[in-house]
Amino acid sequence: MTLKEELENILAEIKNIGGIEASAIVSRDGLLIVSDMGSDVHAETFAAMSAAMLGAAETAVAELKKGLTERVIVESQHGRIIATGAGPRALLVVMAAPDAGLGLILVGMRKAAEKIMELLK
Question: Which domains does the chain have, with CATH numbers?
């Protein structure tokens, strides 16, 4: 199995949690690695903005000397975007329905991020 296929399988597993509408694995500098998104989403723009969002949060938290940023959650009327680090090279970003169970998603994302980190060493 290729690296791309393994990463796509991780995204497929996350989608099984329920409430996940789209997901992506993104490089820390905002380049799309793999995604599972509808055709109505411009995945490259989503990847770049997600990396910028998490990077800005990491800078702010570091400046405040409050430890490491675990994740960023953006909530809107129609859903949530959740971004978390997946090692020094990648991020995992999901779009979830507004009524999706956040606890299950966060646990699933943590496990997925660990797998991504191992694959992208």
Answer: 3-119 (3.30.450.30)
pTM (2 d.p.): 0.93
* 23: amino acid identity, one letter: S
- Residues with Cβ within 8 Å of 45's Cβ and at least 6 positions away in sequence, in order, are none
Q: What is the three-state SS of the chain?
A: CCHHHHHHHHHHHHHCCCCEEEEEEEECCCCEEEEECCCCCCHHHHHHHHHHHHHHHHHHHHHCCCCCCCEEEEEECCEEEEEEECCCCEEEEEEECCCCCHHHHHHHHHHHHHHHHHHCC
Q: What is the pLDDT along the chain (121 residues), one digit of tens a residue?
A: 999 999 999 999 999 998 999 999 999 999 999 999 988 889 999 999 999 999 999 999 999 999 989 999 999 999 999 999 999 999 999 999 999 999 999 999 999 999 999 999 8
